[in-house]
Amino acid sequence: MRIQLKACTAGDADELYAFECDNRRYFEQSIPSRGDDYYVPDIFRERHAALLQEQKDGSSVFFLIKNETGSILGRINLVDRSPIDKSAQLGYRIGQLHTGKGIAKEAVRLLLKNCQKLDIDKVEAKTTDGNLASQKILTHSGFRRVNKEEEVVLHGQRMRLIHYIWAR
Fold first, then answer.
1. What is the domain extent for residue 132?
2. What confidence tens digit (pLDDT) does each residue in 92-126 have?
């Protein structure tokens, strides 16, 4: 399946809201919930507008992962951009119906390919110790595991976050 990364816009709000609602339970199995308020339409639109302002200000870049017909398969972003050390934090999520198809791997590849144009030399990422698929994607994409871990609690269970770094 061919994918493309499209910069997130105000016009994407309704389709993105539907994507997030459709995948809420799936996402919340492996990452902390964004909270019930996130799924209230007006609040979602406000938060979407705030993310777009971050993008406009240059502190973050938000892309939608779309297929050939323009349907949203997932999202990928670079947040906490630092112009001083030219770094950012990577995050991505793929909709439940689209996992296991190489979409995340290709999206990460496409995003890293754009780092020079975005003036980013270093990308940091983290994933839980149980998320072997994400670990594999990051390693395959040229990230190296760094000797830094932290603990989080998800659904009452302690998990370790494993840190990775990629540098141009």
1. 4-167
2. 999 999 999 999 999 999 999 999 999 999 999 99
State phi, psi for 92 to the nearest 5 degrees.
-155, 160
Q: Could you tell me the CATH number of the domain that includes residue 49?
A: 3.40.630.30
Number of domains in the chain: 1
Is the Cβ–Cβ distance between 27 and 38 less than 8 Å?
no
Whole-Å CA distances, 14 to 10, 20, 51, 72, 107:
9, 10, 15, 11, 22
The pair of three-digit structure tokens given for residue 34, joined into one six-digit string: 């964004």
Please compute Rg for the chain using Cα positions.
Answer: 16
pLDDT tens digits for range 33-62? 788 999 999 999 999 999 999 999 999 999
Question: pTM for this one?
Answer: 0.92
Is 141 in a helix, a strand, or coil? coil
